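Duplicate of earlier report; Cu(I)-responsive transcriptional regulator input re-posted below.
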Amino acid sequence: MNIGEAARASGVTAKMIRYYESVGLLMPRGRTDSGYRVYGMSEIHTLRFIRQARRLGFLVEDIRKLLALWQDHSRASAEVKAIALEHVAELDRRITELTAMRDTLTHLARHCHGDERPDCPILEQLACEAAEECSQTTD
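Output:
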């Protein structure tokens, strides 16, 4: 099948298929005489695997490792688990950072009158952070 058919079958856009090829996550079977890439069910399964891994937030390098382990039937599941737990730890770090951002913005928004006056603690905080001269956020 061609790249458009592979995109439809896998749920991955043609642009992303080309990207995955460029970073070495996917190798098409070959090309037609006119130079078009040819994909089979093996590539479709790989693309679906990549799509699911991306949905879970894995980075390309981790997907590369997971693909290698998926294709290695003598793999140790401990390796897969280690990659997954490392990713969970990274997600936890990001959740902590996002929670702090949300809490800061919520605090600033509560203290912004949201009226016709120009005073705005949100802008003041952004400006003082930019100038590196913040003391305390408005209480």
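The beta strands are 30-31, 37-38.

Merging into the original ticket.
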